[in-house]
Design goal:
alpha/beta, OB fold (Dihydrolipoamide Acetyltransferase, E2P)
Length: 373
C-alpha cells in the first residue's frame, strides 16, 4: 500500500514456485471486522498445500471480493482493508475494479522467486531468491524438505530483505550426493553458497535438521551471522521420534507415506494428496534413498538423537531465538529445556513440527524483529 492509498488490497499469494491460482475455502473474517497485521483472514487451498492467509496490515475488512471456492489467479485482489473513515464511494470503486480484473483475467502477473544453481565442492546447490533488501536472510529446511517449504515465510520477509532459500545436498533440486552426511558437510554447503553469492552478513534461519546445520554454520563463521533463528531445531534435547524418521525414509508408496507425514502437523488435514505425491516423486529420484539413509546416521543414534549441537551453540556470538510448535511430535517441545538461557524461545500453539508452514507469522515476526534491530 502506498502512502497516498488508504486501501490495502489483499491478494492471492504465490505460495509455491509453480502456483498460478488458489481458492478461498473459508473466510475467517466478515465485512466490518477490524483486523491487525498478521490476523488470519481466510483459509486458502492451492495445488500444493492449504494455509491461512494473514492480513498484510491493520484496518477494517471493508469488502470481500472473492467467493468461496472461486479459482483466483495469483495476484488477484480477494478483499479490501481500509480505515473506517475511508469513504464508501472509494471502497466501491476499488471493489468494482478488483472484481472486473478477476472477471476479465486482467490480473498483473506476480513474479515468483528467482531460482538458480551454484556449485559448492563439486555439488550443485539449488536456491530461490525473493526481495531486494539491503539485509540478507537465508532459510534452510529440514530432513526430506526443500526450499518450497519456506514460501509462507519467504514472501512476507522479502518486503524487508533479500531472502534466499536453498535446497541442502540430497534434497529438492540440489545434487543428491551428501558425502558422509555430517553437519560439517552440510554446513560447508551453506557456507559455500554464501561465498558464491558474495554474502557477508546474514540472518540464518533453520528448521529441524536445518536448525542444527545453521548452528554449525554460525559456530564456524560467527562473524558472518547477524542473527540465528532456530525453528524446532534438531540437536538439542533427548527426545526424537525415530519411528517418523525411519518411516519417512523407508516409505515406498503414498499409502505408507501419508500416515507418517501426519506427524509433521498439528492439523492432519495439511497432508494433502498433492503434498504426498510430490514427496513420493522426490523419494523416487536417483540417489535420494541413499541420501536419506545416510542422513539418518546423522539424526539418529539408535532411537536417540544422533546430533548434539549444544557445544556448537556455545560458540555462536549472534543473538539466538527459537520458535517451537507446542504440538511437535517429531522433536517434542520439551527439548527446548536443553537450550541455554541466552536463547529466547517462543512457543506456538496449534502448530506441529512444520510450524513455519502451519503458523508462518510466528517465524516471520521473529525474523522481522531481528531485521529491525
Amino acid at each position: 500500500m502506498s502512502t497516498e492509498d488508504p486501501i490495502t488490497k489483499v491478494t492471492m499469494p504465490k505460495w509455491s514456485l509453480s502456483m498460478t491460482s488458489g481458492k478461498v475455502t473459508d473466510w475467517i473474517v466478515a465485512e466490518g471486522d477490524e483486523v491487525a497485521e498478521g490476523d488470519e483472514l481466510a483459509d486458502v487451498d492451492t495445488d500444493k498445500i492449504a494455509g491461512a492467509l494473514e492480513a498484510p496490515g491493520p484496518g477494517v475488512v471493508r469488502r470481500i471480493i472473492a467467493g468461496v471456492n472461486e479459482d483466483i489467479p495469483v495476484g488477484g485482489t480477494i478483499a479490501l482493508i481500509a480505515p473506517a473513515d475511508v469513504p464508501e464511494e472509494l471502497i466501491d470503486e476499488a471493489a468494482r475494479a478488483a472484481r472486473e480484473q478477476l472477471d476479465t483475467g486482467a490480473v498483473e502477473e506476480v513474479p515468483g522467486p528467482v531460482t538458480g544453481v551454484v556449485r559448492v565442492d563439486g555439488r550443485a546447490i539449488s536456491f530461490a531468491t525473493l526481495g531486494e533488501g539491503e539485509q540478507t536472510v537465508l532459510l534452510v529446511h529440514g530432513y526430506g524438505g526443500d526450499k518450497n517449504s519456506w514460501l509462507f515465510v519467504q514472501e512476507p520477509l522479502s518486503a524487508q530483505a533479500t531472502v534466499h532459500a536453498i535446497d541442502l545436498p540430497g534434497h529438492g533440486e540440489s545434487a543428491k550426493d551428501v558425502g558422509d552426511g555430517s553437519l560439517d558437510t552440510l554446513a560447508g554447503a551453506v557456507l559455500g553458497f554464501l561465498q558464491q553469492q558474495g554474502i557477508g552478513q546474514v540472518h540464518l534461519v533453520g528448521q529441524s535438521l536445518g536448525g542444527a546445520v545453521v548452528t554449525a554454520v554460525a559456530a564456524r563463521e560467527p562473524g558472518k551471522v547477524a542473527s540465528l533463528t532456530l525453528v524446532a531445531p534438531a540437536g538439542f534435547g533427548d527426545a526424537i521420534d525415530a519411528g517418523y524418521l525411519r518411516g519417512f525414509a523407508s516409505a515406498t508408496s503414498r499409502r505408507e507415506l501419508k500416515p507418517v507425514l501426519t506427524k509433521l502437523f498439528a492439523d492432519p488435514a495439511q497432508v494433502t494428496r498433492q503434498l504426498t505425491d510430490d514427496l513420493m516423486k522426490y523419494k523416487r529420484l536417483d540417489g535420494v534413498q541413499q541420501a536419506l539413509d545416510t542422513l539418518l546416521g546423522t539424526l539418529l543414534d539408535g532411537d536417540r538423537p544422533g546430533t548434539d549441537a549444544s557445544d556448537l551453540l556455545d560458540q555462536v556470538r549472534a543473538p539466538v531465538q527459537v520458535v517451537w510448535g507446542r504440538a511437535d511430535q517429531v522433536l517434542p517441545v520439551g527439548n527446548a529445556d536443553a537450550l541455554p538461557n541466552s536463547a529466547r524461545v517462543s512457543y506456538v500453539d496449534d502448530a506441529g513440527h512444520m510450524v513455519h508452514m502451519e503458523k508462518p507469522s510466528a517465524v516471520v515476526d521473529a525474523v522481522a524483529k531481528k531485521l529491525e534491530e
